[in-house]
Specification:
Strand order of the largest sheet: 2-1-5-4-3
Oligomer: single chain
Radius of gyration: 28 Å
Helix content: 40-55%
CATH architecture of the largest domain: 2-Layer Sandwich
Number of domains: 4
CATH topology of the largest domain: Beta-Lactamase
Number of helices: 18
CATH class of the largest domain: Alpha Beta
Shape: elongated
């Protein structure tokens, strides 16, 4: 009997697809077929259609429907799920709901057009056959493909244009300008952009306020949107990076701010170092802060990219590093501050909080016993780079940020 009903409901889904082509009706049919609340999203995580079973109550689900989009937190999970990235479904528990969810990409003609989120109210979704899931996802994906093909313009929103730009999809400035002509991007000149990592983000204000609300309120015309699991927003002339400090504490964020934007078309080139800066900031060994300009971290990004190149570190520097590790000495730190301060004894002593005689003793020992060529200016660059790499490996980025 149940199998017969399922077949009838599947037939209704297919019939509505061929006869009506209405996404909301298809979402309704799919919800009845699988007997679960569900959301149909586009690829920017906005809700296109939904189905809600009788008596179902879930603040996270209801808030998403009200706002017309899922939370940044859920969007980040989608973007960073290995299974979803590989085109496969993933079962995920969200902290703000007691119900597990099944996330599935909606793919047609090899292109991901959106996502289907099914709420597992009574733990029955795993009893639904793969054939039913495949039918539902195929029908919804084809409907999204058809609707995309009916659009007069290749991109419906400014967000889609920006995401396509960041993906390297525009071959020329002229084509980019053509696509932005009827959006706010046509006359949009931000000073910089900020990228927010959501790894530790938690929605604390379900039903009251969301991170997007706060960003929109605190940063004028910032147009925040999700890109590859991070929030990107634009900053205008006169912005104050300190405005992110309280926000980062409140929502448990890591924030990196780009170099100045000369032209929006340059966004992809500016994006890479900002994303790398966030990678550095989210390492477990990084404790120096939550908000940085990418310019503050560029030397560390360079060191990070070279940290596997032990062949670039001279034998003498490697020897000093071993001495420091085994004997608790500070030869590498002394050498770093001595060279980075232009061989100033006063500044080296101040940086290490160490008496002048002790610093002189270390310098003479490095020269006389360990063969470090401090009297040869031509060797200083190699020494500084080598000792910086050694310190980056042993002490991490915090050493360069907290001890200036």
């Amino acid at each position: 009997m149940e199998e017969r009903l399922a077949l009838q409901e599947a037939a209704s889904l297919l019939s509505d697809f061929f006869e009506k082509g209405d996404l909301k009706q298809l979402a309704w049919d799919a919800g009845i077929l699988m007997d679960c609340p569900l959301l149909v999203l586009d690829d920017t995580f906005h809700i296109l259609a939904y189905y809600k079973t009788d008596g179902f109550a879930d603040p996270l689900f209801d808030k998403a429907v009200q706002l017309g989009q899922i939370t940044y937190e859920a969007g980040a999970i989608i973007s960073k799920s290995p299974l979803l990235s590989a085109g496969k479904p993933d079962y995920i528990n969200l902290e703000d709901s007691t119900h597990r969810r099944r996330f599935a990409p909606l793919i047609s003609a090899g292109v991901r057009h959106g996502y289907l989120i099914c709420v597992d109210v009574d733990d029955h979704l795993q009893t639904v056959s793969e054939d039913v899931f495949r039918t539902v996802e195929t029908v919804l994906a084809k409907q999204l493909l058809m609707e995309a093909g009916q659009q007069e313009r290749p991109f419906e929103t400014a967000e889609e244009i920006l995401m396509h730009l960041l993906d390297g999809g525009f071959s020329s400035v002229a084509y980019f300008r053509l696509q932005t002509a009827e959006t706010y991007l046509a006359d949009f000149h931000p000073e910089a952009f900020a990228l927010i990592d959501l790894a530790a983000y938690h929605t604390l204000y379900i039903g009251k306020s969301t991170l997007k609300d706060e960003l929109t309120y605190r940063f004028y015309a910032s147009h925040p949107f999700l890109y590859k699991g991070d929030v990107l927003l634009f900053l205008h002339k006169g912005y104050n990076i300190a405005d992110f400090d309280a926000l980062a504490d409140e929502f448990h964020l890591k924030v990196a701010v780009s170099d100045p934007i000369g032209d929006l078309f340059d966004l992809p080139a500016l994006y890479r170092p900002v994303r790398e800066a966030l990678d550095l900031m989210t390492e477990t060994s990084f404790h120096s802060g939550s908000v940085f300009h990418v310019a503050q971290l560029k030397p560390l990004l360079l060191l990070s990219s070279l940290q596997t190149r032990s062949d670039l570190v001279s034998e003498r520097i490697r020897f000093l590093s071993v001495c420091d590790r085994e004997k608790g000495s500070q030869y590498c730190e002394t050498l770093y501050y001595y060279l980075s301060s232009g061989r100033s004894l006063k500044e080296t002593c101040a940086a290490l909080f160490t008496h002048r005689n002790t610093i002189l003793y270390r310098i003479h020992k490095m020269q006389d016993e360990y063969g470090v060529l401090l009297d040869a200016p031509s060797a200083h660059l190699e020494l500084l780079l080598g000792v910086s790499l050694a310190l980056f490996r042993t002490k991490g980025a915090d050493f360069f940020l907290t001890r200036k």
